[in-house]
């Protein structure tokens, strides 16, 4: 039997749940469903008879000759004026700003929603594929196909919740037209791999809009934060990036609606940050992503996490453009306030994620190599971190990630118990950060003196 996405990816806990394999399987042997960790993964609903390998060829976490560099070069390498950085991939222009109309209901400055609406109203595309609330508790969010600007607005805002694309990809294959599709880096990589092998997807998906990403979360992440917020009933709706005028943009809130009839809010600094930054409820595949800026996308939108913008509670967007088509749409844009910004500042805005997907990943790969663990080939090379605190941080956060997934499936779905289990590791990280700061100060002074001496 030839290798498949089940044997080579799912069984090694490397599936991210994008759904491209299930959508494109010519024999229809794969379907997406929830696994025990509250993540999507494919299952075989009937025996594979073709053994064509298409499921592996379109999987973003299978081993390929193609990666974000080769895909980006094919898509954008010949664009006049295009430039390249290792952190961002190719880029044509970078902007900072917002859409006044879309800013209040969006996660940041509303530029992604403005762009999708504009692509529709200008006739560049006929359909938009994006994530939107479902209104049902069993699946809070899903990819949807929209044909009007009003419908697109229902998808404004972030969704820290698992979604999969098998249904909308089948729709695109069945219904002719020009589509724009939004997605996280790994999802758009899967689409690009699929386009290489499917003519209809090449012709019909004419614009891809990427979102920067540090990690995905399982549905259990939402359950945990809802419990932290005091939600008693079943969650029926959630808003992940509520803005409060008396708080900086970085201290947003989650708002839950549940069957108990009450709305509950919890701010980032009240416990969300602890679960997020320590990688609780994060799929294992996220450990092996080296794409921060959705390098396979025609345009990437993100938060402007920079000191001069992050204090503004209304939110501000950064936009990284790779496609001349998108560049023209932005130049003709109305109702937006955009200014050019240096690409270095765009990279700095995501510095924490860049560190995780470069230095942390390099050490994770080094650990996996010593354990002879099967992992995908990455552009980042395995390397033992010189900083002992970084080494221990990677180990500790991985231990917490695994524990959070296992505890929530073993009937121990109690937020207090989960935090009790995590306390030793949380205390170690806090102590390690303090020691690192103490060590870093004199080292910084010495480096400053060395630079001064050398310059003289």
Automatic annotation (TrEMBL):
UniProt cross-references to Gene3D superfamilies, sorted A to Z: 3.30.70.20
GO molecular function: iron-sulfur cluster binding; metal ion binding; oxidoreductase activity, acting on CH or CH2 groups, with an iron-sulfur protein as acceptor
Names of required cofactors: FAD
SUPFAM superfamilies: 4Fe-4S ferredoxins
Superkingdom: Archaea
Pfam families given in the database record: Fer4_7, FrhB_FdhB_C, FrhB_FdhB_N
Alphabetic keyword roster: Iron, Iron-sulfur, Metal-binding, Oxidoreductase
InterPro entries xref list: 4Fe4S_Fe-S-bd, 4Fe4S_Fe_S_CS, Co_F420_Hydgase/DH_bsu_N, FRHB/FDHB/HCAR-like, FrhB_FdhB_C
Annotated 4Fe-4S ferredoxin-type domain residues: 6-35, 38-69
PROSITE patterns named in the record: 4FE4S_FER_1, 4FE4S_FER_2
PANTHER family noted in UniProt: 7-HYDROXYMETHYL CHLOROPHYLL A REDUCTASE, CHLOROPLASTIC (PTHR31332), FORMATE DEHYDROGENASE SUBUNIT BETA (PTHR31332:SF6)
Name this polypeptide is given: 4Fe-4S ferredoxin
Organism encoding this protein: Methanofollis formosanus
